[in-house]
Specification:
Layout (H helix, E strand, L loop, with lengths): L1 H26 L7 H23 L16 H20 L15 H19 L10 E3 L5 E3 H25 L14
Helix pairs in contact: 2-4, 2-5, 3-4, 3-5
Length: 187
């Protein structure tokens, strides 16, 4: 006679769990109408955080560091990102880039870092109106050519990944752990 009581107890334990799972499933967000452009914006924000954190880790005297003469210095990478962000995000968003005074690679760290943050804020604003339906539109590219906006998205994301990778290597060569290699607090 204990078996039916055990079965009843098991069933009563499963029912609330099933109900909770159904409520969670029905409470999940609706699929995005713009999954590609939404992913671009999420990647832009993640790369912005990682790139800014990596640049911030370098002390001022390491902005001249480069592993070999043929490579860019930390300051050169930051200036390249600043200029590239304005150009690429303006092109992607169909928005004119702000006119900014040029900064040299040997400018003070706080100025370079502030400008890098500004350009990523511009990217957020410029990319806010990009939709998946606009990905096939032709946009200006390098050398006077045009490319579909989707290609420029890939160029932009690839550029950010490339430069984060460079900075991560430069940090490790200077005995520092890059932001994405650090464990979150409490682990």
């Amino acid at each position: 006679m204990k078996l039916p009581a055990l079965a009843l107890a098991a069933a009563l334990g499963v029912v609330p769990a099933m109900a909770a799972a159904q409520m969670t499933a029905s409470a999940s967000p609706t699929p995005s109408a713009n999954p590609v452009s939404d992913a671009l914006r999420m990647n832009a924000q993640r790369y912005a955080r990682n790139l800014i954190a990596a640049v911030d880790m370098f002390p001022q005297d390491k902005f001249v560091f480069k592993p070999t003469e043929a490579q860019m210095s930390v300051g050169d990478i930051v200036v390249h990102l600043i200029e590239g962000n304005d150009m690429l995000c303006g092109t992607l968003g169909g928005t004119p880039a702000p006119q900014r005074t040029a900064l040299a690679a040997n400018a003070p760290k706080d100025q370079l870092l502030a400008r890098l943050r500004e350009t990523f804020q511009f990217c957020d604003q410029a990319l806010a109106g990009v939709t998946d339906a606009r990905m096939a539109e032709q946009v200006p590219s390098f050398g006077g050519r045009t490319l579909p906006r989707a290609n420029m998205v890939m160029i932009t994301v690839g550029d950010w990944a490339d430069h984060y990778s460079q900075l991560a290597i430069y940090l490790r060569l200077n005995n520092m752990l890059p932001p994405t290699a650090r464990r979150p607090a409490g682990e």
